Amino acid sequence: MKLTNVLPRIQKNLQHADRTKPSRKLRASLALLAAAALLTAGCGSSSPSGAQKTFTYGTVAYGVSNENVGTNPHDTYVGWSTLRYGIGETLFRFNEAMELEPWLAKDYEQIDDNTVKINLRDDICFSNGKKVTGEAVKKCLEDLLAKHDRAPKELNIETITADGQSVTIRSKEKAPALLNSLSDPYGCIIDVEAGEHDKIVVGTGPYVATSVTDTEIDLEPNKNYWGEVKPKMDKVVVKSITDGDTLTMAMQNGEFDAVQGLPYASLDLFMGNDKYKVSQTDTSRIYQISFNFKNEALKDLRVRQAISMAVDKEGFTSVLLHGQGTPAVGPFPASMAFGDNAVHAVPYDKERAKELLKEAGYEDTDGDGYVDKDGKDLELRYLTYTSRQELPLLAESVQSGLKDIGIKLDVNATNNYKNFLKTGEYDLFSNAHVTAPTGDPEQYFTTYVRQGSPYNYGFYQSDEIESLGRELHDTFGAQNRARLAIQMEQRVLDDCAYIYASHLRMSFVMKKNVTGFAAHPSDYYEITPELSKE
Q1: Which of 18, 30, 56, 394 is deepest in the core (most CB within 10 A)?
Q2: What is the pLDDT of residue 498?
Q3: To the nearest 10°, the Cα dihedral for 415, 421, 425, 426?
Q4: Residues linked to residue 420 through DSSP beta bridges, in sequence order
Q5: Cα atoms in the 13 Å half-sphere on the side-chain side of 276
């Protein structure tokens, strides 16, 4: 019954009690009832009207171009939304040092090089109340392997068997990084028997999705959440805002409680402002450029070297990114054992770049400012997308640098980039990617570098990379794996297959009353049960 209906009745009863002179006991009871009704009006609410405690979050990281619309982790990169927004959880998770620790799992036992037994917690239910058992996990992982584009190759699972609260996974080959890979967002455990309805699946996280569109996810607390800390918000609204200026103004106007992905030029409006709090962390997200080896000009190593030498990484990060990034050498940040401190790339040197182009037969013979060969200017097509604000800025920087060495660069920045990838209408492709989402280097190579990798957009091939990649796949021990990863990185850099421009520094801006909301180096775990508004 609504409070607006209850109070008039209580008041009427009290008035009637005045006329009929009831006992003191009755009058006391009616008064207590009125007081209780008033107290009920304030339960779980920040206002006497009983309004919901809602958290509104604006982000550039959700949308069709990011392949993460929906909540089904078995669909491309949708698992990032499942994990980020508190809908699903994985068997293991990463701490602040990117080290593995149990989550839905209780512990594990390495049976042999190919086999691991994972023991599950006994107190976890899906949001629909169904218990998470070994059989449920088995069905989830089998569905993942049947539907996902990357998981089958990365997990390389041969068999999965369930026994009560344990699941035993046997890989086709040695699997030293299996637990890391299972902690990728696609490893979120969902109830596959419940199916997917309106882009909504049943997970184990602190929140459940109630509505999902291409631009918004609405969440409510999971009443069956197993964690000691229960979700504190009555509702969470995640909105996709791809325009940085719109996101900035919305935060200033109080339309959001927190935002992620503000233009770097806008961060100064919130840093040091006592109305807001800012949470920042360095991540392994890289802004990279791949060369399309199907282009005849780019098959020449000297041309790729020249282009690489013309990219001003320092200027890009310090000026265009306002210092909110770190110039990159390779795909991994220096904080990792296999990161930038262990490898080297060609230097920024425009004069040497011009010499290399001349050695490759390219000179400006007609005085138009662009080098040519056999009567044809060296003109290249640069493809990128706009949902990551850094990518159009990188395109601007690269275009300027290549013009200085006589290369004409035609930039196509579009969120319809997939169609151009399919038709091959590009010579350089720039994108953003988290290179070590599982704290291990192998996934990056199997995703972007090795022959047949699903996102090897440049069609790069190297016998040395394939040999080292096979060895890495079979090698146990973090130090040994780091050593092999460094060799692979250096081969990619020596071949100038990629240009690694910058590592991202992630920034969350929030109102000062928001707590339990912090950037994590994995780029996951955004909406957590600790999230609250004081």
Answers
A1: 394
A2: 98
A3: 80
A4: none
A5: 22
Per-residue pLDDT of 271-323, as tens digits, reads 989 999 999 988 889 999 999 999 999 999 999 999 999 999 999 999 998 88
pLDDT at 19: 38
What per-residue confidence (pLDDT) applies to 136?
A: 98
User: Do residues 236 and 58 make contact, with C-beta atoms less than 8 angstroms apart?
Assistant: no
**Helix or strand (DSSP H, E) at 402:** helix 390-404
- How confident is the model over 351-386, as pLDDT tens digits? 999 999 999 999 999 999 999 999 999 999 999 999
Rounded Cα–Cα distance for residues 413 and 385 (Å): 5
What is residue 192's DSSP assignment? G
H/E stretch holding 375: none
Global pTM reads 0.70
Average pLDDT over residues 151-171: 96
Report how far residue 257's alpha carbon sits from residue 523's, in angstroms, rounded to the nearest whole number.
Answer: 19
Tokens of 66: 């990011």
398: tokens are: 């690269």
Instruction: Kindly provide the residue ranges of all beta strands, DSSP E only, lying in 129-275, ordered along the sequence.
Output: 157-163, 166-171, 207-212, 216-221, 235-240, 258-260
Burial class (CB in 10 A: 0-12, 13-18, 19+), 400: middle
Q: Are 78 and 201 contacting, i.e. CB atoms less than 8 angstroms apart? A: no
With cut-offs at 50, 70 and 90, classify the pLDDT of residue 50.
Answer: low
**Phi and psi dihedrals of 36, rounded to 5?**
-65, -40
Tell me the pLDDT band of 30, cut-offs 50, 70 and 90: very low
- Nearest Cα neighbor of 329 from 348, 310, 315 is 348
Going 31 to 37 to 43 to 47, the CA torsion angle's sign is negative
- What are the tokens at 329? 């050498």
Residue type, 321: L
Euclidean distance between CA atoms 211 and 217, whole angstroms? 6
Query: Which residue matches tokens 């002179």?
Result: 21
